[in-house]
Design goal:
458 residues; alpha/beta; Rossmann fold; GMP Synthetase, Chain A, domain 3; 9-stranded mixed sheet; 33% helix; globular; binds 5'-O-[hydroxy(phenylacetyl)phosphoryl]adenosine
Length: 458
């Protein structure tokens, strides 16, 4: 295990480290971000209260501090979040900005070094090391996915193939020709690679490829099982977000019982997304992260909008870093139909667990997504499955009944022929509105214009 002392650190030592990290983050924000001292003083009840936090604050004081949100990042665009002079910045990444102004994240040289160490932990925990050929099929560009993991591969001493995303036939060729042993990819693009391999008669299973490291979007255990069978490789999850780092925030170890959070660099909390109040350990809610070591843009209590819970107890792998369950949904993907909450993952669950269908589906929301009037689930059905299920009309009716009983609302189901749902080369767009706009997916993708339908609520 690399970084073993840090990953197996005793709780008391880690507490001390986190306390020092929190004070340092607060200090750097107050000293380096214009207006931050006044804003924080006001939020915590005055200048004296802020001075106390700076001097003797601990993680137990977190709840007194204000949240940081995506809107803060938008307001900082492009350099307002930085607390160091421009000549200390070495890298800029940004979110796609499809749902508003882009959010920028900046790195000093030390931030880049830390990033490499943390993504290396994820690769190392997946059993990857020197001698491995690392095919990076994440998009190289402003997105953090490719560059962040590449730093980890460099840290470990891997041979990197910076394939980037897209040109799927060429990706398959590289996988076959180069003796690739590790593939870094979004789960939806991995499914697409598998699909194209099947269509072109390529069997990926005999390849030396051993490990798929997947992340950047929600996926299901059904997706994992399909990928493991199709690639003949082990598939692990890792999690991160640009605002606090990029990939390298949390990762699965060999046990695959949740994702270890890099708690020596991030302080996690789980809050009630409605009230903003911290939840008891183990309860499901929104993950909130405070950076402890980031230099360029330190962040207090960032509301990730990702839903998860922290797992109690130690992990058999020996890491003392706490684990979180995989992120299934984001709070901003939740649709409320006359008081009934619906998440895309519930649809994914029915399709994958009950009907063993690959994840080629889209949710089409009728009306404003904050007050949706109806939901259409479009799903592709391989022709062999349609035949087995008595034709697509019979399957449509069966799936509708299942979805309605699982979701508690009325839905329309449209069965589409194979290939009709747009494939993703990065993050899949699962929710679109019937005006054609992407409705809530966090990053760019192939949203498609949908026809308005008529829907009833139950
Ligand atoms: O997606 C960072 C990343 C790149 C993580 C490559 C892993 C691999 P953003 O583009 O800022 O950063 O998007 C962050 O993606 O808040 C989650 O909603 C979602 N997400 C990331 N990893 C996972 C995962 C990168 N393993 C947003 N499971 C996050 C579920 C994930 N959702």
């Amino acid at each position: 295990m690399i970084d073993e002392a840090a990953q197996r650190q005793a709780p008391a030592e880690r507490d001390a480290l986190q306390t020092a990290g929190l004070r340092s983050t607060l200090g750097r924000i107050v000293a380096g971000r214009p207006g931050a001292r006044d804003a924080l003083s006001q939020a915590v009840g005055g200048a004296a209260a802020l001075e106390r936090l700076l001097a003797v604050g601990t993680p137990a004081d977190l709840a007194a501090l204000p949240f940081t949100t995506k809107d803060d990042f938008r307001a900082w665009y492009p350099f307002g979040g930085a607390v160091v002079p421009r000549d200390q910045l070495r890298r800029l990444h940004a979110s796609s900005g499809t749902t508003g102004p882009p959010t920028v994240t900046l790195y000093t040289a030390a931030d880049l070094a830390t990033w490499g160490r943390l993504t290396a932990r994820a690769l190392d925990a997946a059993g990857v090391g020197p001698g491995d050929v690392f095919h990076n099929a994440m998009h190289y560009g402003l997105f953090t996915g490719a560059f962040g993991m590449q730093l980890g591969a460099d840290h470990l001493g891997l041979l990197t193939v910076p394939a980037g995303s897209g040109q799927t036939a060429r990706q398959l060729r590289l996988l076959c020709d180069l003796g690739v042993t590790v593939l870094h990819v979004t789960p939806s693009y991995a499914l697409h690679l598998l699909e194209l391999a099947g269509q072109t008669g390529i069997d990926l299973r005999p390849l030396p490829l051993r490990v798929l490291v997947c992340g950047a979007e929600p996926w299901t255990e059904g997706d994992r099982a399909g990928l493991e069978a199709g690639f003949g490789a082990r598939v692990v999850d890792h999690y991160g977000l640009s605002e606090v780092l990029g990939p390298g925030v949390a990762f699965e170890c060999a046990e695959r019982e949740g994702l270890h959070l890099n708690e020596d660099h991030f302080l996690p909390e789980v809050i009630d997304p409605e009230s903003g109040r911290p939840l008891p350990e183990g309860a499901e809610g929104e993950l909130v992260l405070t950076t402890l070591t980031r230099e360029a843009v330190p962040v207090l209590r960032y509301r990730t909008r990702d839903l998860t819970r922290l797992l109690p107890g130690p992990c058999a792998c020996g890491r003392t870093l706490r684990r979180m369950v995989r992120v299934r949904d984001r709070t901003d993907d939740m649709l409320i139909f006359h008081g009934v909450n619906v998440f895309p993952s519930q649809v994914a669950h029915v399709l994958s667990e009950r009907h063993h269908l690959p994840a080629n589906y889209q949710l089409v929301v009728e009306g404003d997504r904050r007050r949706p009037r109806g939901l259409e689930v479009r799903v592709e059905l391989p022709s062999a499955t349609a035949e087995r299920r008595g034709g697509s009309a019979a399957f449509e009716a069966e799936l509708r009944r299942d979805l309605e009983s699982h979701l508690g609302i009325r839905v329309a189901v449209t069965v589409l022929p194979p290939g009709a749902v747009p494939r993703s080369e990065g993050k899949a767009v699962r929710v679109i509105s019937n005006s054609g706009a992407q409705a809530g997916a966090p990053a760019a993708g192939g949203g498609r214009r949908a026809q308005p339908g008529s829907f009833d609520q139950r």
